[in-house]
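Practice problem 4.
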């Protein structure tokens, strides 16, 4: 009998091992170089929160007690919120809606987002962030997933915030038009 056959036979009779999570290349459906976007998240109880408002990461890695890393496939849309406080209260509110990119796309360098992403919306300050959160809540109240919203809407919202103009609503008709336009090449 061959000595190398013994371990294989023994392994087949052994108790089943826990199955590790799929590799990132398997998640992307590709072998080798996988263009994934990594987004840093953190939570330190009364001082700092860096979290996702929406987005579907392909995988989330727990780095330690306070930090996580969410991994996104190309073209995934996500919203990350940053909140900071000191002894006297809130000192920073920031909301970013971004889209993960492929290696051929131009991206913006964003702290905590590697290698970068297409920034669709950036809101800074409590009033601006609350206004955008109200729009996101309104979209979800219509039964539309925020990750499926047209990138053009997020850009329009960003421009209206910058111009201090009234913010547009995202309607079911606008969403249907976006979905219909996406089906054509």
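Answer key:
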């Amino acid at each position: 009998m061959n000595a190398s056959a013994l371990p294989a036979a023994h392994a087949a009779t052994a108790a089943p091992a826990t199955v590790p999570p799929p590799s990132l290349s398997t998640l992307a459906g590709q072998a080798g170089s996988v263009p994934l976007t990594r987004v840093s998240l953190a939570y330190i109880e009364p001082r700092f929160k860096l979290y996702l408002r929406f987005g579907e990461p392909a995988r989330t890695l727990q780095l330690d007690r306070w930090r996580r890393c969410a991994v996104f496939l190309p073209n995934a849309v996500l919203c990350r919120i940053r909140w900071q406080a000191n002894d006297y209260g809130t000192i920073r509110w920031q909301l970013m809606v971004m889209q993960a990119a492929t290696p051929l796309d131009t991206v913006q360098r964003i702290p905590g987002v590697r290698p970068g992403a297409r920034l669709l919306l950036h809101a800074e300050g409590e009033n601006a962030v609350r206004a955008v959160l109200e729009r996101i809540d309104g979209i979800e109240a219509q039964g539309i997933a925020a990750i499926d919203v047209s990138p053009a809407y997020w850009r329009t919202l960003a421009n209206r915030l910058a111009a201090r103009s009234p913010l547009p609503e995202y309607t079911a008709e606008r969403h249907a038009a976006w979905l219909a336009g996406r089906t054509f090449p």
